[in-house]
Amino acid sequence: MDKKMIDGGKQNSRGEQTEAAKEYPLEGLVKTDGMVCEALAAYLPAKKQGEFTVEDLANIPDEQRVELIDGVIFEMEAPYTIHQTIELEIFARLRAFIMEKGGKCVPFAAPVDVQLDCDNKTMLQPDVMVICDREKNNGKRIYGAPDFIAEVLSKSTRKKDLLIKTVKYENAGVRECWMIDPDKKQILVYDFEREGYPVIYGFDDEIPVRIFEGECKINFREIHDYLKEIYGV
């Protein structure tokens, strides 16, 4: 298919938010009016959304997955099985390539915490990532920006992932980011080092991984065929 360029709702070249990002500001994605949900409130200090820190997450049980973005806590639903299948297929292909080449980069699959901005206001859990600076892995979490991130979109995370996290990833220094949409069967590839807009691929494409100079390619036709075999989609 032809590769298309679109405005993904990021900041523009002057560092300003685009109209799409303004339409869904961070506070507009919080589920409650300035407060976290009742299920989480019991584990957190009495603060408003926007005031929470990484340290405040310590008492939240592991089974209640959350992300922290600029002091705002977002609940995370357990991924659907199709979501997890895509995630693990990408992880497996990245790992196989790195091992074959004897590379120093390390792939990870969620849940792994990423202290993205090296501050105490943001902690994310990307679906798949690659770290090439091993010193960022402190054995507990990733401290700093991964080189590569892939997120598999769902209805509950679509706006947050497309309009908030892509901006966070770019500003933190992530080199490449994929947003994978199983419903539309599309992959938005952001090459933050070279291009200002994402390139759209389909589930029938072979997609080059740009942090590896395109030498590694993820064959989404193979992944799609596997999904059809398992899920009939």
Automatic annotation (TrEMBL):
InterPro entries: Nuclease_put_TT1808 (IPR012296), Restrct_endonuc-II-like (IPR011335), Uma2 (IPR008538)
A Pfam family annotated for this UniProt entry: Uma2
Coiled coil: none
Domain (Putative restriction endonuclease): residue spans on this chain: 56-197
Region (Disordered): 1-20
The name this protein goes by in its record: Putative restriction endonuclease domain-containing protein
Species name: Marvinbryantia formatexigens DSM 14469
